[in-house]
Amino acid sequence: MIRQAENRDLSRIAEILVFSKRVNFRRIFHNDQYSFGELQVLSVAEEYAADPQAMAQTWVYEEDFVKGLIRIQGREVKTLYTDPFFTGQGIGGKLLAFAVDRFDAGYLWALEKNEKALAFYGSHGFFPNGVWQYEEGTAERLLLLER
Length: 147
Hints:
Strand content: 25-35%
Mean pLDDT: 94
Low-confidence stretches: none
Number of domains: 1
CATH class: Alpha Beta
Number of helices: 6
Radius of gyration: 15 Å
Structural class: alpha+beta
């Protein structure tokens, strides 16, 4: 079910990233130019394909097809996304547990206003530790969560 990402997964990875970011972040950033102009499946797939390190750090949850992904760098969870159509089916929890069990993942950054993500991570033992920083180029705060 969880395996390392391969080039054949690029279109699904990009699709999940684009649509998850639109669904979860548009209400926070209010930037339609980015959400619908700059953030495109093809360009995200090309960026991922051009970054062998990103591919090497990415794992996918596959059940007939890719439904979610996680990128792990060292002990940090860099990204975790589930296709919005499959949210609530335990996929994110399985990916996070995989990161903890296999890589001893111990921290990640999450947007302060992303209440769903904070609740999800809290239910899996990741909590804000008081450290924060601004999301680059915005006034939105990222919180450091640790387990």
